[in-house]
Amino acid sequence: MKIFIDPGHGGNDSGAIGNGxxxxxxxxxxxxREKRLFESFGHQVKxxxxxxxxxxxxxxxxxxxxxxADVFISNHIxxxxxxxxxxxxxxxxxxxxxxxEKVENSLRKIFKSRGLKSMKGNSGDYLYVIRATKMPAxxxxxxxxxxxxxxxxxxxxxxxxxxxxxxxxxxIGKEFDEKKAAE
Length: 183
Fold this sequence. Notes:
Layout: E1 2-7, E2 17-18, E3 21-22, H1 23-40, E4 44-47, H2 57-67, E5 71-78, E6 85-88, H3 94-107, E7 113-117, E8 120-121, E9 124-125, H4 128-131, E10 137-144, H5 148-154, H6 157-172
Parallel strand pairs: 1-4, 1-5, 5-10, 6-7
Antiparallel strand pairs: 2-3, 6-10, 8-9
C-alpha cells in the first residue's frame, strides 16, 4: 500500500501552542514514528515534510495526488479547551470512514475519544486535505495542546509511539494491543 503521511503545520506555522509544546513538533514526531512502522510492514511511505519546514496545504495534497497514494493521513494536535482524540473523515463516508473508525477504535484504547468527526463546508468537506485528496483521507487530532492532562500523556515518547502504532494498526487492519504497544 502507498501511504502518504502529513505532519500538520511546520516551519513558520507552529500550529497550536500550549503547555510548553508546539503542535508542529509533536505532529512531526508521531508522523516519523508512523512512517518507520508502516515501512516495517512493507508499505511505501511518502511524507509532506520530514523536517521543520513550511509546506502549503495545496503542496501537501498535490504531492499525495501526484504520487497516487492509497491513503492520506494528516496528524494534528487540537486546541480550544477540550480533551481527547478525534479522527476526521469525509462527509461521503466510504473507505476513508472505515479507516477512521479503525484508527479511532485503536486510539480510544490509550486516550479518551471525542469520536469520529466530519463536517460539510461550502465546497464539500470542510477540511481541505480531506476534500482535495483523490484518495481516502483521515485527519487525526491527538489530544488538546492546551489541556495539561492530554499533554502529560503526549510528553512521553512511549505514548507518541503508541499513538503512531494505533494509527498504523488501524489503517492496516491489525489488532492494536495497547499493553504490548511500544515495546
